[in-house]
Amino acid sequence: EPPRGGAQRLRFTLEAPPQQAWAVLLSQASAGGRISVNGRMVGEVQSADSATEVRWRRPHLLAIDPSLLVAGENTILIQTTYRSGVNVLAGVEVGPLAEVGRHHDRQFFLSSILPWVGATLAACFALLFGLLWLRRHDWTIGLVTLASVFWALRCAFFLIESMPAGAGLWLDVLFYVANGGFAVVITLVLLQLAGHSSTRAAW
């Protein structure tokens, strides 16, 4: 499917041109886009093209040269290309770079750093319990290993933001398999820990 194009304009008013650097924060811009202020481009976040699909989950911060801003009405234009599916453009914020930058750092931590931490911890648990299972062949240890693998795959869904065109479907399949697999396996682990170790009780 070829990508389609779209644009959104946002207007804000200033009493006087700022002296310090300003910035525009795109809290949610899943399809990326080209950002212009008063007709001058200030930056571009990769969008979908004929060979690539994007699903940005992290926020994006673009600096605005104060010389581009004027007293009175100012216009921000966001032009993007996208494919069918869920595409989000929300949480656009304009203001002094220092203030908007703090908001960006907090959002970036929640949307990008935490999934990396979760994936790293899950991979470490999978390695540790996998090695224990090789030594002891315990049913519960094997289930914890499998649950850790599923959680690492689930985190990978949130970390992959650019992919070849058409690969998004397989990424969605990965997410649902990882989610469902983790739920099933962790239920079996809890049943094991609760003492219901028979096959009939587990299933």
Q: How does this model look, in words?
A:
24% of the residues are buried. The two termini are 42 Å apart. The radius of gyration is 23 Å and the shape is elongated. It has 4 helices and 9 strands. With 203 residues, it is of the alpha+beta class. Helix 1 packs antiparallel against helix 2 (139-159) and helix 2 runs antiparallel to helix 3 (168-193). It is 45% helix and 30% strand. The longest helix has 40 residues, at 97-136. Strands 1-7-3-4 form a 4-stranded antiparallel sheet, with no helix packed on it. Strands 6-2-8 form a 3-stranded antiparallel sheet, with helices on one face. The chain has helices at 97-136, 139-159, 168-193, 199-202, and strands spanning 4-14, 22-29, 33-37, 40-45, 52-54, 60-64, 72-82, 89-96, 162-164.
Compile the SSE list and pairings.
Elements lengths: L3 E11 L7 E8 L3 E5 L2 E6 L6 E3 L5 E5 L7 E11 L6 E8 H40 L2 H21 L2 E3 L3 H26 L5 H4 L1
Antiparallel strand pairs: 1-7, 2-6, 2-8, 3-4, 3-7, 5-9
Q: Outline of this structure?
A:
The chain is an alpha+beta fold. It contains 4 helices and 9 strands.
Judged by helices, strands and strand pairing, the structural class is alpha+beta
Shape: elongated
Mean pLDDT: 89
Low-confidence stretches: 199-203
> How many helical stretches?
4
Helix proportion of residues, in percent?
Answer: 40-55%
Largest sheet: 4 strands, antiparallel
Q: How far is it from the N-terminal to the C-terminal residue, by CA? A: 42 Å
Strand content: 25-35%
Instruction: Sketch the topology as an H/E string, one letter per element.
Output: EEEEEEEEHHEHH
Strand order of the largest sheet: 1-7-3-4
Please report the total strand number as a whole number.
9
Specify Rg, calculated over alpha carbons: 23 Å
